[in-house]
Amino acid sequence: xxxxxxxxxxxxxxxxxxxxxxxxxxxxxxxxxxxxxxxxx
Length: 41
Hints:
- This protein is mostly helical and 41 residues long.
- It has one helix at 2-20.
- The two termini are 14 Å apart.
- The model has no long low-confidence stretch (mean pLDDT 60).
- It comes from Macronyx croceus.
- It is found in: Mitochondrion membrane.
């Protein structure tokens, strides 16, 4: 299942990217639920 590999590889990258770049510098506000979790729930 490719989505598992995608989540395991991309999710940490997104977490690291967000942690290195504060949400205040983003043009969008992060929703309460992780945007990369809903497609395969």
